[in-house]
Specification:
The chain has 85 residues and is mainly alpha-helical. The chain contains five helices and no strands.
Length: 85
């Protein structure tokens, strides 16, 4: 219904006014395209795409294998004498 009303109004415009409408429509289209392309990857990626990208990203870091002795995980090794009164 709104489209028909707008079409009727457009039919009444002269050439100069139509050029202004055309420029306005072009500006709206450009703005719409820019807003679509400015979305962040995580907003548009599927779960599988995101996981694949995350995995690829993690592969860029050096692979280090630090093996700690079991004692390193003891409470005493982590906290020492803290908390003891």
């Amino acid at each position: 219904m709104l489209k028909e009303k707008v079409k009727q109004q457009i039919d009444k415009l002269n050439d100069e006014q139509l050029k202004q409408v055309e420029s306005f429509i072009t500006a709206i289209q450009v703005q719409s395209e820019q807003s679509q392309t400015s979305k962040r990857y995580w907003e548009t990626a599927t779960k599988e795409e995101w996981l694949k990208s995350f995995h690829e990203w993690t592969q860029q870091f050096p692979k280090t294998e630090v093996i700690l002795p079991d004692e390193a995980y003891d409470r005493e090794s982590i906290y020492g004498d803290r908390g003891r009164d």
